[in-house]
Amino acid sequence: MEKTVTEAINYRRSTRVYKSEPIDSQKVKQCLYQASLAPTSSNLQLWEFYHITDKTLLDQLAVACLNQNAAKTAQQLVIVVTRKDLWRQRAKANIEFLNKVYDKPNLEERWLKRKKMAIDYYQKLIPTIYTDVFGILGFIKYLVFQIVGLFRPVYRQTRLSDMRIVAHKSAALAAENFMLSMSAIGYDTCPMEGSDTLRVKQILTLPRGAEINMVIGCGIRDEDKGIYGPRFRVPFEDVYFEK
Ligand SMILES: Cc1cc2nc3c(=O)[nH]c(=O)nc-3n(C[C@H](O)[C@H](O)[C@H](O)COP(=O)(O)O)c2cc1C
């Protein structure tokens, strides 16, 4: 039986050594589907998930992951990738979806308004934020918004670096959805940023606009050596603030 969310959160540990027992690709794929249900900024879904089961690729990627045990002993790997460059396609997909769901005769006024607002969002606001030329336009927008921001609340994250963070935030949420889904079915994972991302991109033949968010080792924990130590967190009181 699947674990509850609380059980899955508690069971999940970064697992560095996996058993040699194979894991079911279809189950991993289902966990990746659940990853794709994570919330995402403007619902742009600027992410891709590479599910690696091929032994040759696994070996190459383990080297690119600096020969970390979590990659070397993994039965499968998942690479979460950001695709900021796909914003136009994703905005278009959202518009097509909106046109389809609101394609009903005699639509009530409030739904017509909602449809127009949402479509304007993808046709006007998203291009305003995402259009950039080598970071120059983004920086100009940033300066303009800083000035406007002196007088009223305004969205300020328009620089190329801001947009990268936006894409990586959403991708990391998907990665956590994935790891918790794996945990819920008794599979283990280890998120890794310790990798040569350029080599990972080359191995996966990813385009220039793609960025590696995380490589995730997947398998079943070795009961003795899999988890390096007890879980450590700074006291919750040090990070929790009620105001
Ligand atoms: C973004 C990110 C990158 C990480 N990179 C690595 C890594 O390269 N190698 C590794 O062994 N663990 C890596 N970790 C795992 C952390 O070390 C681990 O989450 C932390 O020590 C807490 O342990 P726990 O996950 O078992 O609770 C990473 C975790 C995150 C969230």
UniProtKB/TrEMBL annotation:
What family does the entry list?
Belongs to the nitroreductase family.
The record's InterPro entries line, in alphabetical order, gives:
Nitroreductase, Nitroreductase-like
- Highest taxon of source: Bacteria
Can the keyword Nucleus be found in this entry's annotation?
no
Q: For the Nitroreductase domain, which residue ranges apply?
A: 9-219
| SUPFAM superfamilies registered for this protein in UniProt | FMN-dependent nitroreductase-like (SSF55469)
Q: Which residues cross the membrane?
A: 133-155
Query: Has the keyword DNA-binding been applied to this entry?
Result: no
Provide the protein name: Nitroreductase family protein
Q: Provide this UniProt record's keywords sorted from A to Z.
A: Membrane, Oxidoreductase, Transmembrane, Transmembrane helix
